[in-house]
Amino acid sequence: MITKLLPTADLILHHGLFAQISLFRDFAAPATIALESTRRERQYLEMQSEPAHANRVATMGQLTASIVHEIKQPIATARTNAAAALRFLDKSPADVAEVREALTCIVDDADRASDVIERIGSLIKRAPPGKEVVDLNTAILEATALARSEAVKTGVTVGTQLGGDLPRIHYDRVQLQQVMLNLIVNAIQSLRGVEDGNHKLHISTVSIEPEGVCVAVRDTGHGLRPESLPRLFEPFYTTKPDGMGMGLSICGSIIEAHGGRLRATRCEPRGALFQFTIPAD
């Protein structure tokens, strides 16, 4: 009896094993496809981020002198306050109140320098995009500060008109500042060689319905040639002798990826206006 049942049991066992293997294959195949799809998507995003990262590094390189100034300024102020604190300590009796005030200023100066370094680090490092609720005006002012010395060196007066009570927006802060830095640096460069001394750069933000927020960067430079307008945001198109032609293309892609649009307009009698919209939450 037992010898007759063994082949049947063995057959059932093998049948169950094959069924499990088949079932495993049925589940494994879609999982493998999903993993491969995820891997390829990640690889694609990394490839897309490379030009943006390279453009950020190039932009920061152009602003080296401005960045150095932004860091040296709070350090120099901190040294001045430290020297003042030592003088107050040498008094007889020591002026403790003045020493405390000087030390508080030193802490503030150190925080300012640290903030600048942190912003530079976040702009230069290669990191995946991440949307967050952004204080748009603060982000723009931080980007403007990094280009301040470059503007001063070129004799450019930078004015801002930042709207109050702007709607909440979800945005990648680093990418937003990258767009602003590109537009600001381009505007400053367009003002070189303007001989009448009218070197002005104006940055504004305003709430618009129903789109969200509009950001505008306007300069009084030589302006845009009519034949250049249709191609400004094409990759590798540039009107600069030493330009790569990637800055505006990348900026346009960043704005579009966040649901907005970057556009350029000629101004009269001269100059250019770049503006983009960001949808509100």
Provide a descriptive summary of the structure in words.
This protein has 281 residues and is α+β, with helices and mostly antiparallel strands. It folds into three domains: 9-55; 63-126, Helix Hairpins (Orthogonal Bundle), CATH 1.10.287; 131-281, Histidine kinase-like ATPase, C-terminal domain (Heat Shock Protein 90, 2-Layer Sandwich), CATH 3.30.565.10. The protein has seven helices and seven strands; from the N terminus they run αααβααββαββαββ. The chain has helices at residues 2-62, 64-90, 96-124, 136-146, 148-154, 173-191, 247-257, and strands at 132-134, 157-162, 169-171, 200-208, 212-219, 261-266, 272-279. Strands 2-4-5-7-6 form a five-stranded mixed sheet. Strands 1-3 form a two-stranded antiparallel sheet. A hairpin with a 5-residue loop joins strand 6 (261-266) and strand 7 (272-279). It is globular, with a radius of gyration of 29 Å.
Please describe the topology of this protein:
Elements: H1 2-62, H2 64-90, H3 96-124, E1 132-134, H4 136-146, H5 148-154, E2 157-162, E3 169-171, H6 173-191, E4 200-208, E5 212-219, H7 247-257, E6 261-266, E7 272-279
Parallel strand pairs: 2-4
Antiparallel strand pairs: 1-3, 4-5, 5-7, 6-7
Helix pairs in contact: 2-3, 4-6, 6-7
* Overall outline: globular
Give the number of helices: 7
Straight-line N-to-C gap? 76 Å
CATH topology call of the largest domain: Heat Shock Protein 90
What number is the mean pLDDT?
76
Helix proportion of residues, in percent?
Answer: 55-70%
CA radius of gyration: 29 Å
